[in-house]
Specification:
The complex is a heterodimer of chains A (about 290) and B (about 450). Chain A is mainly α. Chain A has helices at about 10-35, 55-60, 65-95, 100-110, 115-130, 135-140, 150-175, 180-190, 195-220, 225-230, 245-255, 255-280; strands at about 40, 50. Chain A has one domain (about 60-285): MetI-like (MetI-like fold, Orthogonal Bundle), CATH 1.10.3720.10. In chain A, about 30% of the residues are buried. The longest helix of chain B is centred in the first third of the chain and has 25 residues, at about 1-25. The chains are: A mainly alpha (about 290), B alpha/beta (about 450).
Chain lengths: ~290, ~450
């Protein structure tokens, strides 16, 4: 049997070309341009540029409010990732049972992922807004979104809920790959359900968990804008003013292009840094089949 | 000798050129006023107002059959401004766009606009500014020149539920006028069973207006209207402190419901009867009157409150229409015709009836009065009277500031800090310092 082959000198490049054109136009060029602009001050209307060296970086790092956003973004991310993974793993385990109507339960639990963050924000606004929120009506406590600590909590909850579907889909798929015979063998050996979960199921889930850890970290840093804009606008008193929201305000409202560029470079490096760190530390504990 | 001859030659060649250049500026540009031309008009009014504006522009096109106007709703004021900025850079800017009042100083210094007074002179289409209400036209006048055309103007008002006022033993025909009045009314309403009787949304606009009401400046250099750009804000003086002491004090005493930012929560609280008094834009008259009527309640309106004895007045808010300095002379001519048409009587009357924004012209107002419109809708008159009762000073003309959007979010955060317990003076001092830093930065960037 002769295997059909392609000449490897031109064709691969031709096939890659469309992808690269799109990547260059919509990703690499804008990213490089952003990094370049972080070294300039930019006129808010004409776009005239003046080289400023590290001026923008000095300013953002000497700004206590920016450092505050830095801190709360980190707390937010840790909370969203931990709660998000824990809840979705538990729900996925339940959804893996064989009971009647499971198809429907699965669909219902996955659909929040199909919502845009702004719509998710609007739903939480129906529940918690101080004028006529449903939860406020039933609990008599109406300052959910107008008190710093509770507002922060609700943003976390909303972000976790919004991403549940994504995580559950991945966990469900991973659970299909846990071999039944291994679980059976363990129970014959006398392992209880907890032991079986931690020693076997969890080990098989660990590659997925690691993947979701990376994805959720990125999600928490970059995708919370819509929720915050709808629910709190960064308030009360900046308690939900995460890095990504400050970045939006600096570019789109305050017209500080140089600042915004510097902030996006910082955010980019931060997330890349965390991801590299995760690969170097956590991945060692991952069990690949 | 040779050198002198050359020098003389150069001078004789230069001098006429100079004069010619000078002449050209005075002379009206020759354009074919009847040539077919298309212009773009971007505005920031959503909902039913999109149809309303389209209707006004359709009338304009009927009167000027050679002009085609593409009207587009381009999102909020802020979105519209951002779209205009990128369009200018990309070379496809609209000829006319709509901006909020706080964008004024930025746009004046932007280098992307043509002042309406210049365009009016260039095309010999003079605008009778005397027919505009003084506070309206003086807001958009900077250093003696009008830069944009007033379009949708509003002021804040107090709205109150007359039915609930009666129940609480208050005089429903006599709205509260001072800080003490509001507070006393709130206490009485609370006794009558309304848990938190007052609210308004978290917005720096009210704070700014209540500084105007005390005839105090918001920014230095003639409230931002002087020959030099403003360099700092004056919000942490006596006037600013008085406003927040009273405002935050009511919140702390449980009389004021904190509904957060945005424009829907306080409206919802008022319409559902959660609260009996709100402050909101005069352009909400339509909406709130209807809302209360559905519940069988009567609504009253009053001037926004001031500390006892304060002598200032309100400044206008809302938006105006700007011309970009792009496009052919024919397009510029069409643009100035369009914005002059929109500010004329008939469109302004239509606009007023449809929204509650008040007409910007005296003649439009007279026509409305003659029609008996205000006898049927007395609440529409309150905003007017409030404006006309305002003295004309640099303070009540309204502050101009390049960093106004940023200043507003800093002030709003400060108010929330006060709700959470920070002393008013400290919060104001800190936010003034932050705004001043932003101003310094802006002033240096805008001149580059």
């Amino acid at each position: 049997m002769k295997q059909s082959t392609f000449k490897a000198d031109v064709l691969p490049y031709v096939l890659l070309l469309p992808t690269f054109i799109i990547l260059i136009v919509f990703l690499f060029y804008p990213a490089l341009e952003t990094f370049r602009l972080s070294l300039f001050t930019v006129h808010p209307f004409t776009g005239a540029e003046r080289f400023a060296g590290l001026y923008n970086f000095k300013n953002i790092f000497s700004n206590t409010e920016y450092m505050h956003s830095f801190g709360i973004s980190f707390i937010f991310t840790v909370a969203v990732v931990l709660l998000g993974l824990a809840f979705s793993m538990m729900i996925a385990l339940l959804l893996n049972e064989r009971i009647k109507g499971m198809k429907y339960y699965r669909s219902f639990l996955i659909w929040p992922y199909a919502l845009s963050p702004a719509i998710a924000g609007a739903l939480f606004n129906f529940l918690f807004n101080p004028a006529n929120g449903i939860i406020g009506y039933f609990t008599g406590f109406r300052t959910w979104l107008t008190q710093g600590s509770t507002a922060f909590l609700i943003i976390i909850l909303a972000a976790v809920w919004k991403n549940l579907g994504y995580n559950i889909v991945f966990y469900l798929t991973a659970l299909r790959n846990v071999p039944r015979d291994a679980l059976e063998a363990a129970s014959i050996d006398g392992a209880g359900p907890l032991r079986r979960f931690f020693s076997i199921t969890f080990a098989f889930l660990s590659p997925t968990t690691f993947f979701l850890l990376v994805m959720n970290t990125t999600y928490a840093y970059f995708s919370s804008f819509g929720l915050i804009d709808v629910l709190t606008e960064g308030g009360p008193a900046r308690s939900t003013n995460l890095l990504i929201y400050q970045l939006y305000r600096d570019f789109f409202v305050n017209s500080k292009t140089g600042y915004a560029a510097a902030e996006s470079l910082v955010l980019f490096l931060l997330v890349v840094g965390i991801t590299v760190l995760q690969f170097q530390t956590t991945e060692k504990k991952v069990h690949y089949q | 000798m040779k050198r002198i001859v050359i020098l003389l030659l150069v001078v004789t060649m230069l001098v006429p050129a100079l004069f010619a250049a000078g002449k050209e500026e005075v002379k009206a540009i020759e354009v074919d006023a009847n040539a077919p031309v298309t212009i773009d008009f971007w505005h920031a009014m959503s909902g039913t107002r999109i149809e309303l504006i389209q209707g006004i522009v359709d009338e304009f096109m009927k009167e000027n059959p050679n002009i085609t106007v593409n009207v587009q709703y381009t999102g909020s004021y802020n979105d519209t401004l951002n779209k205009v900025k990128s369009a200018v850079k990309a070379g496809n800017a609209p000829q006319v766009f709509h901006s909020y009042e706080i964008g004024t100083l930025g746009l004046i210094n932007s280098g992307i606009i043509t002042p309406v007074d210049d365009a009016a002179k260039e095309f010999n289409l003079p605008i009778n500014w005397d027919d505009f209400f003084t506070p309206v036209q003086s807001y958009y006048k900077y250093q003696g020149k009008h830069y944009s055309m007033p379009f949708n103007s509003s002021t804040p008002l107090i709205y109150y539920n007359k039915t609930m006022f009666k129940k609480a033993g208050l005089d429903p025909e006599n709205p509260p006028k001072t800080y003490a009045d509001i507070r006393n009314a709130a206490v009485a309403l609370q006794k009558a069973g309304i848990k938190t009787p007052v609210t308004w949304n978290l917005h720096s606009w009210y704070f700014e207006q209540m500084i105007c009401l005390q005839d105090a400046p918001f920014a230095n250099n003639d409230n931002g209207r002087g020959a030099e750009l403003p360099t700092k804000v004056l919000i942490n003086g006596e006037a600013g402190k008085k406003v927040l002491d009273w405002w935050v004090g009511m919140e702390k005493d449980g009389l004021f419901l904190d509904v957060g930012p945005g424009w829907s929560n306080h409206r919802a609280a008022f319409v559902s009867g959660e609260v009996a008094m709100v402050m909101s834009s005069s352009s909400d008259v339509n909406l709130l009157t209807k809302g209360l009527k559905e519940k069988g309640w009567e609504m009253g309106t009053g001037y926004i409150p001031r500390p006892e004895g304060a002598k200032g007045g309100v400044a206008i808010g809302g938006g105006s229409l700007w011309m970009t300095n792009t496009g052919t002379p024919e397009q510029q001519l069409a643009a100035i015709k369009l914005i002059e048409y929109i500010s004329s009587d008939e469109p302004q009357i239509k606009w007023h009836k449809g929204t509650g924004y008040f007409p910007v012209r005296k003649t439009a107002m007279d026509k409305l009065k003659a029609e008996g419109w205000f006898n049927e809708n007395p609440n529409y008159l309150t905003a007017f009277n409030q404006l006309l009762d305002s003295p004309e000073t640099l303070n009540t003309a309204g502050a101009l500031l390049g960093v106004f959007p940023e200043a507003r979010s800093i002030i709003q955060a400060a108010i929330q800090e006060c709700y959470a317990g920070k002393p008013v003076q400290q919060a104001l001092d800190e936010s003034a310092a932050k705004i001043n830093a932003a101003i310094t930065e802006w002033n240096s960037v805008i001149k580059q």
